Amino acid sequence: MPELLEVIELGNPILRQKAQLVQDVSSDRIQHLVDNLMMTVKEANGVGIAAPQVAQSDRLFIVASRPNLRYPHAPTMEPTAMINPHMLAHSDETVKGWEGCLSIPGLRGEVPRYQAIEVAYTGRDGKQHKQALTDFVARIFQHELDHLDGIVFVDRVESTQDLITEREYQRLFPG
Ligand code: ZN
């Protein structure tokens, strides 16, 4: 049975480490971690979660865009484990959009990200994938990839003026 994992928060040094490449995707440890992350991100109304957020310094994350309480307008997709992910190419264009983070509760920021990217990753079945992502899903990928390099969204805002609290965010953009 998958179990809910504790999400660590900003200030925990693990969030600032560079995560390690996953050597054996088929190992019980990695397969259980994927199951537990999938359950944890769903329960927390997240659209993505990276292994360092549950104190596991492995290069893997889940992208699980779907409308929920925290992101009512998110597109729906099958939750996907992306292992040893990287960006192959990106658009010149960047767009600013609102982000939050399960490891930084109560805060939202308007963050510039590439509008379109081409990515590669290993799936939980060990197969290699290449994919083009755009807009919100591309944003999730870039946010999660940053977690694997010890970067969080507050590092990416153009100005601290682009940070607001969750409560004011809900007031500005009522679901
Ligand atoms: Zn995050």
Brief overview, please?
With 175 residues, this protein is of the alpha+beta class. The protein has 3 helices and 8 strands; from the N terminus they run αβββββββαβα. It has one domain (13-172): Peptide Deformylase (Alpha-Beta Complex), CATH 3.90.45.10.
Give an overview in words.
- With 175 residues, the chain is of the alpha+beta class.
- The chain has a single domain (13-172), classed as Peptide deformylase (Peptide Deformylase, Alpha-Beta Complex), CATH 3.90.45.
- Helix content is 21%, strand content 28%.
- The protein contains 3 helices and 8 strands; from the N terminus they run αβββββββαβα.
- It has helices spanning 28-43, 135-148, 166-172, and strands spanning 48-50, 60-63, 80-90, 94-99, 107-114, 116-122, 128-134, 163-165.
- The strands form 2 sheets. The protein has a 5-stranded antiparallel β-sheet. Strands 4-5-8 form a 3-stranded antiparallel β-sheet.
- A hairpin with a 5-residue loop joins β6 and β7 (128-134).
- The model has no long low-confidence stretch (mean pLDDT 96).
- Residues 101-103, 143, 147 line the site of zinc ion.
What is the name of the CATH topology?
Peptide Deformylase
Number of E strands: 8
Q: Supply the CATH class.
A: Alpha Beta
Strand portion: 25-35%
* Strand and helix order: HEEEEEEEHEH
From the alpha carbons, calculate the radius of gyration and give it in angstroms.
Answer: 15 Å
Distance between termini?
33 Å
User: How does the major sheet shape up?
Assistant: 5 strands, antiparallel
How helical, in percent, are the residues? 10-25%
Shape: globular
Largest sheet, order of strands side by side? 1-2-3-6-7
Q: Identify low-pLDDT runs.
A: none
The kinds of small molecule bound in this structure are:
zinc ion
State the secondary-structure class: alpha+beta
Report the average pLDDT across residues: 96
Continuous helix count: 3
In the CATH classification, which architecture applies? Alpha-Beta Complex
Number of structurally distinct domains: 1
CATH superfamily: Peptide deformylase
